[in-house]
Design brief:
Blueprint: E1 2-6, H1 10-20, E2 28-32, H2 35-44, E3 50-53, H3 62-72, E4 78-82, H4 87-95, E5 100-103, H5 108-119, H6 127-140, H7 147-157, H8 162-169, H9 173-187, H10 192-202
Parallel strand pairs: 1-2, 1-3, 3-4, 4-5
Helix pairs in contact: 2-3, 7-9, 7-10, 8-9, 9-10
């Protein structure tokens, strides 16, 4: 089995390579420290069976490299291995063609199980992230906010003061204050900081 491991940290690649030796008796592991090197290696090794790709690369976004792999090698399975636990990253990776998403905090056995699943033609997503997304979606539906209130809340999360929120949304500052009062009541909080933290916790606004 031949696998291409793409990550800019040599120590991390060494650790993953050691774990990957358990996958098959005859294992060949290629290593690339950036996206362009990875694409070059893929062109030089048409017998590649799997790519493990980090999202945080020094030369290009891992998403850009993922898209190029999907376009140039549509039958080559790619699994993302990333420290990011953002649900948006997981969703975007799958939408752009990845067949799996493994958090760097996962155990070696989880990684091996995920690879086996992908090589069997399935898609792997970590249960912890799936559960978190489901819980956030469930909780967010319990807090009824209008579309305008959600827009105000999003700008609050970005640090805008009331006057700037009013300018952005083309409404009166007094209207902004009314919306913020309604947001506090809906989220059962008493200040802006609590509102933003609660909104991030339940998925009404996305963590950066």
């Amino acid at each position: 089995m031949k696998i291409l491991l793409v990550d800019d940290h040599t120590l991390f690649r060494d650790g993953i390579a050691h774990v990957l030796q358990k996958l098959a008796d005859e294992m060949s592991i290629l290593e690339a420290g950036n996206g362009l090197e990875a694409l070059s290696m893929a062109s030089e090794h048409p017998d590649l069976e799997l790519v493990l790709l980090d999202l945080n690369l020094p030369d290009h976004s891992g998403f850009d490299i993922l898209s190029q792999f999907s376009q140039q090698y549509p039958t080559l399975p790619v699994i993302i291995i990333s420290a990011s636990e953002k649900q948006s990253d997981m969703r975007r990776a799958i939408e752009q063609g990845a067949l799996g998403y493994i958090g760097k905090g996962s155990s070696s056995q989880v990684m091996l199980n995920a690879i086996h699943l992908v090589m069997a033609g399935e898609i792997y997503m970590p249960a912890s992230l799936i559960q978190r997304v489901s819980q956030q979606q469930k909780e967010s539906t319990e807090y009824q906010l209008t579309q305008r209130q959600r827009g105000v809340l999003k700008l609050m999360d970005q640090g805008y003061a009331n006057k700037l929120i009013a300018d952005k949304l083309n409404i009166a500052e007094s209207t902004v204050k009314m919306h913020i009062t309604a947001i506090f009541r809906a989220l059962q909080v008493t200040n802006r900081t609590q509102a933003v933290l609660k909104a991030q916790e339940i998925g009404l606004v996305e963590r950066v």
